[in-house]
């Protein structure tokens, strides 16, 4: 039975991959059958060390281990007292705004505090003041194009005599930023398909795995059963990191050995998702430099395999960007968008950086919606993005 399943799976994978890249999946879908080399990820050792839960790693390594959903979220991760659903979300947001402002303090200092100083004691909004405003916006990571767009909006109001008082400039800017961040896009709706498949991509160390853990926790709070997929088979510790998140929040994790083909992991995970009847599948992927062509080809292959295995999926391709990288986030977003067709963004590490303004040019130039923001390392530090709230917190 297992041999038949292996053959069927290999044939389906080959079919999914050969259409567009001419390579059979088997060529690089090496599913290691041997013990891990010294220093590599070893499921047995990890299990002994208590990293993996009981029962995992006992089947053929050619098949994914599904770590059972035996975590107790109540123990380690207190569920938000406001509860799930729309009302809970509104309450959480109300509580969260002061915290968001606090976390975005450095970005605000760089932008809003300088605008405050600029208008202090000024009687009129003139060209000189607008030029200085331009400089503040550009040096606050808003980029040339978004700055020009925002200045045009402000200048237009000045021309029409609708804005005269410099003291109201901040307010005007805030509305313009909020409008710019409001990118037209389908709403975030994990109930739109079952399973709802989310592919998470991004460069190294931006916070993909952490975001997945936090996102799965949110989804559980909203009544969805998530399945996590350890598609980052390149960095051994990433698999263990995701397994730990799974245990912590009480979500099953599909994983294979370190070095396995990520497309094969994705393929098996979708099989597991169907048979386990889960609501949401979240696939982690290895961090890759957006400039490395072969790695970008690999992610395209993962994408193709998902599409082939489950038409309509992935339903969301989330690009995780690290806010501390400033303008570099923009070039990452461009390349990932062109390669895999990103549908939404997650901006992480907004806490403690002065470069949070980068969100503005990314939204403006790429017209991609920000789905979530990461404002810390704790499980509750992932928030749905609200353009108005964000604009208020930085301007
Ligand atoms: N301060 C802060 N740290 C974060 C946030 N999100 C993630 N991190 C930290 O960033 C570091 C990298 O996170 P990972 O989740 O391992 O990043 P990754 O993208 O999966 O890394 P690779 O697999 O190497 O590509 C970890 O120390 C996280 O705790 C955030 O919103 N704020």
Automatic annotation (TrEMBL):
Start-end of Basic and acidic residues biased regions: 74-86
CDD domains: FtsY
Cellular component terms (Gene Ontology): cytoplasm; plasma membrane
Gene3D superfamilies: P-loop containing nucleotide triphosphate hydrolases (3.40.50.300), Signal recognition particle SRP54, nucleotide-binding domain (1.20.120.140)
Any one GO biological process: SRP-dependent cotranslational protein targeting to membrane
One Pfam short name: SRP54_N
Enzyme Commission no: 3.6.5.4
Protein role: Involved in targeting and insertion of nascent membrane proteins into the cytoplasmic membrane. Acts as a receptor for the complex formed by the signal recognition particle (SRP) and the ribosome-nascent chain (RNC). Interaction with SRP-RNC leads to the transfer of the RNC complex to the Sec translocase for insertion into the membrane, the hydrolysis of GTP by both Ffh and FtsY, and the dissociation of the SRP-FtsY complex into the individual components.
Family: Belongs to the GTP-binding SRP family. FtsY subfamily.
Name under which the protein is recorded: Signal recognition particle receptor FtsY
Source organism (scientific name): Desulfoglaeba alkanexedens ALDC
């Amino acid at each position: 039975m297992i041999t038949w399943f292996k053959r069927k799976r290999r044939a389906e994978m080959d079919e999914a991959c050969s259409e567009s890249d001419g390579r059979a999946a088997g060529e690089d879908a090496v599913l290691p059958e041997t013990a891990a080399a010294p220093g590599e990820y070893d499921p047995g050792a990890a299990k002994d060390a208590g990293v993996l839960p009981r029962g995992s790693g006992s089947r053929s390594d050619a098949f994914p281990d599904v770590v059972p959903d035996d975590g107790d979220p109540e123990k380690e991760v207190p569920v938000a007292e406001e509860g799930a659903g729309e009302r809970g979300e509104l309450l959480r947001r109300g509580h969260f705004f002061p915290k968001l402002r606090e976390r975005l303090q450095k970005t605000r200092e760089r932008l809003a505090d300088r605008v405050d100083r600029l208008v202090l004691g000024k009687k009129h909004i003139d060209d000189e003041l607008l030029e200085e405003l331009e400089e503040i916006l550009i040096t606050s990571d808003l980029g040339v194009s978004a700055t020009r767009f925002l200045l045009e909006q402000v200048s237009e109001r000045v021309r029409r005599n609708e804005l005269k008082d410099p003291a109201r400039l901040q307010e005007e800017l805030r509305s313009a930023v909020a409008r710019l961040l409001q990118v037209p896009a389908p709403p975030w709706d994990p109930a739109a398909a079952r399973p709802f498949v989310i592919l998470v991509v991004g460069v190294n160390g931006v916070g993909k795995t952490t975001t997945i853990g936090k996102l799965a926790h949110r989804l559980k709070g909203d009544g969805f059963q998530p399945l996590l997929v350890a598609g980052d088979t390149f960095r051994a510790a990433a698999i263990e990191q995701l397994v730990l998140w799974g245990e912590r929040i009480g979500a099953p994790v599909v994983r294979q050995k370190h070095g396995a083909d990520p497309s094969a992991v994705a393929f098996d995970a979708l099989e597991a998702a169907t048979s386990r009847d889960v609501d949401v599948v979240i696939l982690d992927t290895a961090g890759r430099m957006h400039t490395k062509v072969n790695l970008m080809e690999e992610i395209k292959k993962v994408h193709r395999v998902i599409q082939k295995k489950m038409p309509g999926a992935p339903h969301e391709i989330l690009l995780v960007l690290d806010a501390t990288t400033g303008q570099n986030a923009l070039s990452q977003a461009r390349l990932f968008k062109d390669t895999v067709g990103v549908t939404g963004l997650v901006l992480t590490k907004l806490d403690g950086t002065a470069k949070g303004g980068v969100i503005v040019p990314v939204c403006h130039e790429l017209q991609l919606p920000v789905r979530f923001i990461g404002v810390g390392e704790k499980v509750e530090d992932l928030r749905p993005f609200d353009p108005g709230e964000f604009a208020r917190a930085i301007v």
